[in-house]
From TrEMBL:
The gene is aroC. It catalyses: 5-O-(1-carboxyvinyl)-3-phosphoshikimate = chorismate + phosphate. This is Chorismate synthase. Reduced FMN (FMNH(2)). Its EC number is 4.2.3.5.
Amino acid sequence: MEFMTAGESHGPQLTGVITGIPAGLAIDVTSINDALAKRQGGYGRGARQKIEHDQVQIVGGVRHGVTLGGPIALVIVNRDHDHWQAIMDPVAKANPENTLRQVQRPRAGHADLVGGQKYGHRDLRNVLERSSARETAMKVAIGAVCEQLLAALGIHLVGYVQSVGAHDGGRIETDDVTAIKAAVNANDLRVLDANRVSAIHAAIDDARHAGDTLGGTVRVVANGLPAGIGSYTTAPAKLDGQIAAAVMSVNAIKGVAFGDGFAVADRPGSTVMDAITWDADHGYQRASNHLGGLEGGMTNGMPLVVTAAMKPIPTLYHPLPSVNIETKAVSLANVERSDTTAIVPASIVVEMAVAIALTQALCAQFDDSNFARMKAQVAAYREELRRF
Ligand SMILES: Cc1cc2nc3c(=O)[nH]c(=O)nc-3n(C[C@H](O)[C@H](O)[C@H](O)COP(=O)(O)O)c2cc1C
Ligand SMILES: C=C(O[C@@H]1CC(C(=O)O)=C[C@@H](OP(=O)(O)O)[C@H]1O)C(=O)O
């Protein structure tokens, strides 16, 4: 399974194409739109989300709610394009007199300067329109299709905010609880401890008032994966590498870890390895899950636990010094309308990145032509594992 997205942040639409999803998979548009709505939510978002009301249109590869086996084509319209028609027209020639919304003072931490240097753009808007995380709306729609395949195989994912940076340089943690799913759906911050929400809102307010921004960490848990997805045999076949690449490709994600993460480096092996157990009903399991469900580049049947670190939003309303690329004068960086933090949307974008990577691994390992055949193969494989 492969996918591609196209489209600029203020262009007419986002377009997505997915190949390699088997025929015969039921697709529910409502749940794709629910995922899109979650991505638009969260405290600390900028004004753009008041304009957009993301809804997917399926325009290829699905008939009467069931996949056909061909490329699946998806569209999400950018409502904000109405305000940008002349500036972002894909066809009409630019009016050289109209310098409105041109960008010449690159923002540190965004793609502006290096993207301009690499692609030869003097108007850095040509960079930021595509480097914008607006693209993650389509990634979520694609991931929501993947989650439907995974759910039909008994594999369920949830993403949530684990911590948010604080304006004083500290960190506000949210608490892990067992009823992750219910709690995640219960509040807009997708955090698990309601008492923490007001502290997090206050930290985000502080940052906004100071013209500053915040990052944080998000966690994704996937339950129901059979052991042995991925492989130890070659570097590109290792599932941990595939998931890390998918998660790191999300805008502003700067770190990824599995299970207990970087902490394992400081602990003795006896407290990090997960002891092997066996019973007739479940076959092999692990007594703990420090390694986050991965051994040797393969799932081991325990929940997959992925944590990702997001840097603060690069656009600062109190901008850092920059350089005007035309005059070379020291100038404050350009200020674009922006989020103060996007940690809540990041929790669903990272969840969907993991869903895409898992779907790719499953489609590579089992029949990817017909979903009923894939499902039967996965069920037979689960039984083989139980009897091993
Ligand atoms: C959901 C989401 C929303 C974002 N919103 C903004 C934003 O409003 N302003 C901004 O400057 N960066 C925003 N970012 C981050 C930038 O897109 C990102 O930092 C930039 O593309 C540079 O890529 P890098 O941080 O991966 O190096 C957002 C990221 C995500 C995941
Ligand atoms: C549009 C989205 O996020 C955008 C991501 C983004 C960036 O630089 O990454 C900058 C902002 O764009 P705008 O200037 O149009 O408000 C965000 O709103 C979205 O998430 O739907």
